[in-house]
Each structure stands twice: as structure tokens, then as C-alpha cells.
From TrEMBL:
InterPro entries: DUF3456 (IPR021852), SaposinB_dom (IPR008139). Keywords: Disulfide bond, Signal. Residues 43-160 form the Saposin B-type domain. Residues 1-17 form the signal peptide. Pfam families: DUF3456 (PF11938). PROSITE patterns: SAP_B. This is TLR4 regulator and MIR-interacting MSAP.
Length: 168
């Protein structure tokens, strides 16, 4: 009985949404960074970090040198499809491996502790959402910050919700 209860309790955080899988807001709140300057406006730390990471991934994918068409075969149908190397799973995983070293976000007190905290949040984000990030960028060149951070992960308000609040 206890084992079943523990299994249910362990599963509960994953059942309540994406944010529970990756939420560094308590750590940033404790350090005095509940809100960060992101895209020229004050946003929650989780939202701003998500947007910065996704922006850097997108930038690196878009700046891929030697972009060329490559064949992709899907195991189920064995049909071939051509996609750009810059949006292939191999290239996406390559970018995910070192994206945290180049995230363009700086905290107000840009000291070593703040950098370590940001790097830890980024590493955890990439590790936790690797599959979602790969699906978001695979063979898709549309801007991803809104799709990933607001619609998929729900760590940012949707753009139309923000506009509604500004109208009030």
C-alpha cells in the first residue's frame, strides 16, 4: 500500500503540467530575480530564461554553416523525405549540447553565483525538454519562442493574453 501511495505521489508533479518539470522560480526569487528584463520588458524569470534559451537555439540553427538537403527515412512507412540539415535531429541535438554556454541573458548582478544559477537552470531546461525542443525545431523554420514557452510549456503568457491585460 505504501509503495502504491509513493508511486502516486512521485507521479503527481508530472501530471500537473510542464512547469512542475522545470521551475527554477523559487531559486531566482530567493536571489532577488523574480522578474528579469527580457525582450525590453519585465517578465518572470522562468519565462525570460525559456525565451532566451529558445532564441539562442533558433539563432544557432539558423546560422548553420553548410546547410544542405538531406534524406530522412521514417521507420514506420520507410518513405524518404528531404529536410534541411539545419533542422535535422542531428543538428538540433548538436546545438542542445552546448547552447547553455551561449545563452544571451545576463542577470543584474552578473556575478559567478548568478551565472552558475543561470547555467544550472539552462542545463536542467535542456535536459528536461530535449524531446519537446527537438520536435519544435525539427523541419520547422517558424519562430519558436511563443510556441515553445507560451503554448507548449506554458511558462509565459500567450501574446494575445498579454494584449488583453494591457487593454484593460
Amino acid at each position: 500500500m505504501k509503495a502504491a501511495a509513493l508511486a502516486v505521489v512521485a507521479f503527481l508533479p508530472a501530471a500537473f503540467g510542464w512547469t512542475d518539470r522545470w521551475d527554477h522560480s523559487k531559486r531566482f526569487n530567493a536571489a532577488g530575480h523574480a522578474q528579469l528584463d527580457c525582450d525590453g520588458e519585465s517578465q518572470t524569470a522562468s519565462c525570460c530564461i525559456c525565451k532566451s534559451i529558445v532564441f539562442e537555439i533558433e539563432t544557432q540553427l539558423n546560422n548553420t554553416q553548410n546547410d544542405h538537403d538531406m534524406d530522412v527515412v521514417f521507420r514506420v512507412s520507410e518513405k524518404k523525405k528531404q529536410i534541411k540539415y539545419s533542422r535535422s535531429e542531428a543538428r538540433i541535438l548538436e546545438v542542445l549540447d552546448d547552447v547553455c554556454e551561449q545563452v544571451p541573458l545576463e542577470l543584474p548582478d552578473n556575478n559567478r553565483k548568478a551565472k552558475r544559477m543561470l547555467n544550472a537552470a539552462c542545463s536542467h531546461f535542456v535536459g528536461e525538454y530535449e524531446d519537446e525542443l527537438t520536435r519544435t525545431f525539427f523541419d520547422d523554420f517558424t519562430p519558436a519562442k511563443e510556441r515553445m514557452c507560451a503554448a507548449t510549456l506554458q511558462v509565459c503568457p500567450l501574446a494575445h493574453e498579454t494584449a488583453k491585460h494591457e487593454d484593460l
